[in-house]
Amino acid sequence: MTLAALPDHNRATDPLWLKLFHGYSHVITPLRYLGWATDVELFGGEYHVRADLGDGTELIISSQDVLPLDPAGVTGWRVVRQPIEEPWRHTALYDSTPDGPQRHHGTSLIPMFARIDELDAPMPAVQLTMSVTHTAPYGTNHGQPTGNDAPGTAVARYFDWSQRLVTKSGYRRVWERPEQEGYPLAVFENVGHIATVRVTRSDD
Predict the structure, then answer these.
(1) Amino acid 57: pLDDT
(2) Which H, E and C letters describe the chain, residue by residue?
(3) Interatomic CA distance for residues 177 and 186, integer angstroms
(4) 188 CB neighbour count, 10 Å cutoff
(5) Nearest-angstrom CA–CA distance, 163 and 185
(6) Cα separations (Å) of 35 from 52, 105, 122, 136, 151?
(7) How far is 9 from 7, CA to CA, in rounded Å?
(8) How far is residue 36's CA from residue 29's CA, in Å, rounded to a whole number?
(9) d(CA 148, CA 181)
(10) Which pTM does this prediction carry?
Protein backbone atom coordinates (compact mmCIF):
# COMPACT_ATOMS: atom_id res chain seq x y z
CA MET A 1 0.00 0.00 0.00
CA THR A 2 1.34 3.45 -0.93
CA LEU A 3 -0.57 5.74 1.46
CA ALA A 4 1.80 8.55 2.41
CA ALA A 5 2.40 9.30 6.07
CA LEU A 6 0.43 11.97 7.88
CA PRO A 7 2.06 15.40 8.23
CA ASP A 8 4.50 15.65 11.11
CA HIS A 9 4.33 19.16 12.53
CA ASN A 10 3.03 21.08 15.53
CA ARG A 11 -0.22 22.07 13.80
CA ALA A 12 -1.55 18.51 14.02
CA THR A 13 -3.33 19.40 17.28
CA ASP A 14 -4.62 22.78 16.07
CA PRO A 15 -8.47 22.64 15.92
CA LEU A 16 -8.54 24.77 12.75
CA TRP A 17 -5.96 22.60 10.98
CA LEU A 18 -7.81 19.43 12.04
CA LYS A 19 -11.12 20.84 10.78
CA LEU A 20 -9.62 21.62 7.39
CA PHE A 21 -7.55 18.42 7.12
CA HIS A 22 -10.58 16.24 7.81
CA GLY A 23 -12.99 18.48 5.90
CA TYR A 24 -10.87 18.15 2.76
CA SER A 25 -9.98 14.48 3.24
CA HIS A 26 -11.76 13.72 -0.07
CA VAL A 27 -8.97 15.73 -1.78
CA ILE A 28 -6.09 14.86 0.55
CA THR A 29 -6.55 11.08 0.75
CA PRO A 30 -6.33 10.42 -3.04
CA LEU A 31 -3.10 12.45 -3.10
CA ARG A 32 -1.71 10.40 -0.24
CA TYR A 33 -2.54 7.20 -2.16
CA LEU A 34 -0.30 8.57 -4.92
CA GLY A 35 2.48 8.44 -2.31
CA TRP A 36 2.72 12.21 -1.85
CA ALA A 37 3.06 13.92 1.54
CA THR A 38 0.00 16.17 1.67
CA ASP A 39 -0.93 18.94 4.06
CA VAL A 40 -3.30 21.87 4.54
CA GLU A 41 -1.44 25.15 4.55
CA LEU A 42 -2.75 28.02 6.69
CA PHE A 43 -1.66 31.53 5.76
CA GLY A 44 -3.50 34.20 7.74
CA GLY A 45 -6.96 32.95 6.93
CA GLU A 46 -6.04 31.69 3.44
CA TYR A 47 -6.10 27.92 3.06
CA HIS A 48 -5.01 25.47 0.38
CA VAL A 49 -3.99 21.83 0.02
CA ARG A 50 -0.31 21.24 -0.71
CA ALA A 51 1.18 17.97 -1.98
CA ASP A 52 4.95 17.42 -2.21
CA LEU A 53 5.56 15.36 -5.37
CA GLY A 54 9.00 14.26 -4.21
CA ASP A 55 10.82 15.67 -7.24
CA GLY A 56 11.32 19.25 -6.10
CA THR A 57 7.83 20.34 -7.17
CA GLU A 58 4.51 20.60 -5.38
CA LEU A 59 0.81 20.79 -6.19
CA ILE A 60 -1.30 23.59 -4.77
CA ILE A 61 -5.04 22.92 -4.79
CA SER A 62 -7.46 25.72 -4.05
CA SER A 63 -10.82 27.00 -5.26
CA GLN A 64 -11.48 30.58 -6.37
CA ASP A 65 -8.30 32.01 -4.83
CA VAL A 66 -8.34 29.95 -1.60
CA LEU A 67 -10.27 27.08 -0.03
CA PRO A 68 -13.27 28.10 2.07
CA LEU A 69 -13.35 26.94 5.68
CA ASP A 70 -16.50 24.95 4.84
CA PRO A 71 -15.89 22.56 1.90
CA ALA A 72 -19.54 23.00 0.89
CA GLY A 73 -18.53 26.49 -0.28
CA VAL A 74 -16.15 25.18 -2.97
CA THR A 75 -17.28 26.30 -6.44
CA GLY A 76 -14.63 24.39 -8.38
CA TRP A 77 -10.99 23.32 -8.14
CA ARG A 78 -7.83 25.12 -9.20
CA VAL A 79 -4.59 23.11 -9.40
CA VAL A 80 -1.11 24.48 -10.08
CA ARG A 81 2.29 22.78 -10.05
CA GLN A 82 5.30 24.78 -8.96
CA PRO A 83 8.94 24.30 -7.97
CA ILE A 84 9.14 24.34 -4.18
CA GLU A 85 12.08 26.75 -4.23
CA GLU A 86 10.69 28.94 -7.04
CA PRO A 87 6.89 29.03 -6.61
CA TRP A 88 6.51 32.00 -8.96
CA ARG A 89 7.34 29.61 -11.84
CA HIS A 90 4.03 27.78 -11.42
CA THR A 91 2.11 26.00 -14.17
CA ALA A 92 -1.70 25.89 -14.21
CA LEU A 93 -2.89 22.28 -14.57
CA TYR A 94 -6.63 22.39 -13.98
CA ASP A 95 -9.31 24.99 -13.24
CA SER A 96 -12.97 24.07 -12.82
CA THR A 97 -13.92 27.27 -10.98
CA PRO A 98 -16.75 29.29 -12.60
CA ASP A 99 -14.39 31.20 -14.93
CA GLY A 100 -11.94 28.33 -15.58
CA PRO A 101 -11.49 26.30 -18.76
CA GLN A 102 -12.75 23.12 -17.02
CA ARG A 103 -15.72 24.88 -15.38
CA HIS A 104 -18.13 22.33 -16.86
CA HIS A 105 -16.73 19.80 -14.34
CA GLY A 106 -17.60 21.99 -11.34
CA THR A 107 -16.69 20.38 -8.03
CA SER A 108 -16.35 16.82 -9.37
CA LEU A 109 -13.16 15.20 -8.12
CA ILE A 110 -12.78 12.59 -10.86
CA PRO A 111 -11.76 14.87 -13.78
CA MET A 112 -9.34 16.74 -11.54
CA PHE A 113 -7.62 13.54 -10.41
CA ALA A 114 -7.60 12.14 -13.94
CA ARG A 115 -5.49 15.19 -14.85
CA ILE A 116 -3.28 14.80 -11.77
CA ASP A 117 -2.73 11.11 -12.54
CA GLU A 118 -1.28 12.10 -15.93
CA LEU A 119 1.58 14.09 -14.38
CA ASP A 120 5.19 13.21 -15.00
CA ALA A 121 5.92 12.74 -11.30
CA PRO A 122 6.89 9.86 -9.00
CA MET A 123 3.80 7.78 -8.25
CA PRO A 124 2.94 4.09 -7.83
CA ALA A 125 2.45 2.09 -11.03
CA VAL A 126 -0.40 0.06 -9.50
CA GLN A 127 -3.89 0.18 -11.00
CA LEU A 128 -6.92 0.21 -8.68
CA THR A 129 -10.61 -0.56 -9.16
CA MET A 130 -13.49 1.14 -7.35
CA SER A 131 -16.68 -0.91 -7.10
CA VAL A 132 -20.10 -0.66 -5.47
CA THR A 133 -22.16 -3.68 -4.40
CA HIS A 134 -25.85 -3.24 -3.60
CA THR A 135 -27.64 -5.84 -1.46
CA ALA A 136 -31.41 -5.70 -1.08
CA PRO A 137 -33.25 -6.83 2.10
CA TYR A 138 -34.62 -9.83 0.24
CA GLY A 139 -31.11 -11.06 -0.59
CA THR A 140 -30.47 -10.08 -4.20
CA ASN A 141 -27.33 -8.13 -4.96
CA HIS A 142 -25.56 -6.61 -7.90
CA GLY A 143 -22.19 -4.98 -8.37
CA GLN A 144 -21.01 -1.92 -10.27
CA PRO A 145 -17.27 -2.02 -11.05
CA THR A 146 -15.83 1.10 -12.70
CA GLY A 147 -12.77 -0.28 -14.46
CA ASN A 148 -9.10 0.28 -13.70
CA ASP A 149 -7.68 3.67 -12.74
CA ALA A 150 -4.51 5.16 -11.35
CA PRO A 151 -4.69 5.45 -7.54
CA GLY A 152 -5.72 9.12 -7.38
CA THR A 153 -8.73 8.70 -9.66
CA ALA A 154 -9.83 5.40 -8.11
CA VAL A 155 -9.83 6.83 -4.58
CA ALA A 156 -11.54 10.01 -5.83
CA ARG A 157 -14.28 7.78 -7.29
CA TYR A 158 -14.67 6.19 -3.87
CA PHE A 159 -15.29 9.57 -2.24
CA ASP A 160 -17.58 10.68 -5.08
CA TRP A 161 -19.75 7.55 -4.82
CA SER A 162 -19.81 7.69 -1.03
CA GLN A 163 -21.04 11.27 -1.10
CA ARG A 164 -23.62 10.48 -3.76
CA LEU A 165 -25.07 7.63 -1.70
CA VAL A 166 -25.53 9.93 1.29
CA THR A 167 -26.65 13.16 -0.38
CA LYS A 168 -28.68 11.83 -3.30
CA SER A 169 -29.82 8.32 -2.35
CA GLY A 170 -30.58 8.67 1.37
CA TYR A 171 -28.01 6.17 2.67
CA ARG A 172 -26.08 6.60 5.90
CA ARG A 173 -22.53 5.40 6.49
CA VAL A 174 -22.50 2.65 9.13
CA TRP A 175 -18.85 1.57 8.93
CA GLU A 176 -15.58 2.60 7.27
CA ARG A 177 -12.26 0.79 7.29
CA PRO A 178 -9.51 2.74 9.11
CA GLU A 179 -7.19 4.17 6.46
CA GLN A 180 -4.08 2.51 7.87
CA GLU A 181 -5.61 -0.96 7.42
CA GLY A 182 -5.88 -1.07 3.63
CA TYR A 183 -7.55 0.49 0.63
CA PRO A 184 -10.79 2.44 1.24
CA LEU A 185 -13.89 0.42 2.12
CA ALA A 186 -17.21 1.62 3.56
CA VAL A 187 -20.68 0.19 4.20
CA PHE A 188 -23.88 2.22 3.85
CA GLU A 189 -27.48 1.37 4.82
CA ASN A 190 -30.87 2.66 3.72
CA VAL A 191 -34.04 0.93 5.04
CA GLY A 192 -32.44 -2.51 4.91
CA HIS A 193 -30.62 -1.91 1.64
CA ILE A 194 -26.84 -2.20 1.96
CA ALA A 195 -24.28 -0.59 -0.33
CA THR A 196 -20.61 -1.51 -0.03
CA VAL A 197 -18.10 0.84 -1.68
CA ARG A 198 -14.53 -0.42 -1.99
CA VAL A 199 -11.21 0.14 -3.69
CA THR A 200 -9.06 -2.87 -4.55
CA ARG A 201 -5.98 -3.57 -6.63
CA SER A 202 -7.00 -4.44 -10.16
CA ASP A 203 -5.01 -7.68 -9.96
CA ASP A 204 -6.73 -8.88 -6.74
Answers:
(1) 97
(2) CCCCCCCCCHHHHCHHHHHHHHHCHHHHHHHHHCCCEEEEEEECCEEEEEEECCCCEEEEEECCCCECCCHHHCCCCEEEEEECCCHHHCEEEEECCCCCCCHHHCCCHHHHHHHHCCCCCCCCCCCEEEEEEEECCCCCEEEEEEEEECHHHHHHHHHHHHHHHHHCCCCEEEEECCHHHCCCEEEEEECCEEEEEEEEECCC
(3) 6
(4) 23
(5) 13
(6) 9, 25, 8, 37, 9
(7) 6
(8) 10
(9) 21
(10) 0.93
Would you state the pLDDT for residue 11?
85
Cβ neighbour number for residue 134 with a 10 Å cutoff? 16
From the CB of residue 198, how many other CB atoms can be counted at a distance below 10 Å?
Answer: 17
Q: What is the pLDDT along the chain (204 residues), one digit of tens a residue?
A: 568 988 888 888 899 999 999 999 999 999 999 999 999 998 777 899 999 999 999 999 999 888 999 999 999 999 999 999 998 999 999 999 999 999 999 999 999 999 999 999 999 989 999 999 999 988 777 777 678 999 999 999 999 999 999 999 999 999 999 988 899 999 999 999 999 999 999 876
Give the dihedral sign, CA 42/43/48/49.
negative
- Contacts with 100 (C-beta within 8 Å, 6 or more apart), sequence order: 76, 78, 94
Q: Which of 123, 180, 194, 182 is nearest to 153 (CA)?
A: 123
